């Protein structure tokens, strides 16, 4: 969920007041595997049994009075080449409109990941995708509130993504179960913008995951996340969770 003044296509970055005290960031242990999953969006490869699901996503503010109405959860694995992400999004009406790469994907319902591979640095990476498997990848040299700028020129070289819809895409007359997705993000995909050491056992990254949901009849989007931010702003890396690589 990218929000900042002057974003292409006129999107608005919402610097909202603190709505809830930010809880302690969550953590996830990501296990190393010898054989990667097939990236087809289906999540049925046996290798995914080695990965634990996260808890269900919560409202971005962490407020208990704004509990998401549809479940979202994800899991991760890694090998010597890539980080693998799987996500499951419950959704009674799976739809998408954006088909051009690097569109402002959060104008659709979407899934987003935020990655800070070098926690001591200010820069980080963002990746978004919708149910049409349309993607947007960008690099930020620092958070927006610190004067950071989005660089849409960064391309996650070699990334592979896939979506599987449990229902019918863009068919409003029936009821769907949701959509699942898989991402294979090469560990060297950041090289054009940042020198990121290859993970070893115990390496930690700061990460977070977000889902933007546009509910019918609601003028504003819902923002559901893995590790709550305490306010409607994903661009506070110090409040992201921790990913620990384990062999």
TrEMBL record:
Q: Which residues form the signal peptide?
A: 1-22
A Pfam family found in this protein is: CBM9_1
Q: Which GO terms describe its biological process?
A: carbohydrate catabolic process
Q: Which UniProt keywords apply?
A: Signal
Any one GO molecular function term = carbohydrate binding
Organism's domain of life? Bacteria
Q: Where is the Carbohydrate-binding domain positioned along the sequence?
A: 39-244
The molecule here is called: Carbohydrate-binding domain-containing protein
Task: Look up and give the organism this protein is from.
Answer: Terriglobus roseus (strain DSM 18391 / NRRL B-41598 / KBS 63)
């Amino acid at each position: 969920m990218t929000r900042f003044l002057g974003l292409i296509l006129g999107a608005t970055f919402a610097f909202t007041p603190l709505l809830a005290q930010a809880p302690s960031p969550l953590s996830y242990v990501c296990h190393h595997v010898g054989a990667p999953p097939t990236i087809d969006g289906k999540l049925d490869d046996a290798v995914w049994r080695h990965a634990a699901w996260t808890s269900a996503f919560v409202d971005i503010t962490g407020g208990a009075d704004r509990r998401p109405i549809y479940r979202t959860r994800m899991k991760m694995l890694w090998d010597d080449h890539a980080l693998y992400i799987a996500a499951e999004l419950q959704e009674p009406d799976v739809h998408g409109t954006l088909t051009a790469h690097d569109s402002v994907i959060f104008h659709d319902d979407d899934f987003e990941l935020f990655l800070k591979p070098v926690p001591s640095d200010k820069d980080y990476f963002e990746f978004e995708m919708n149910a049409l498997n349309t993607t947007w990848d960008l690099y930020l040299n620092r958070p927006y509130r610190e004067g950071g700028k989005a660089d849409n020129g960064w391309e996650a070289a070699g990334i592979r993504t896939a979506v599987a819809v449990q229902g019918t895409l863009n068919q409003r007359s029936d009821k769907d179960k949701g959509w699942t997705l898989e991402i294979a993000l090469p560990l060297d995909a950041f090289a054009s913008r940042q020198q990121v050491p290859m993970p070893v056992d115990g390496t930690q990254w700061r990460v977070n995951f977000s889902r933007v949901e546009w509910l019918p009849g609601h003028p504003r989007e819902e923002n559901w996340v893995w590790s709550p931010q305490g306010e409607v702003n994903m661009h506070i890396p110090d409040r992201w969770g921790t990913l620990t690589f384990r062999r």
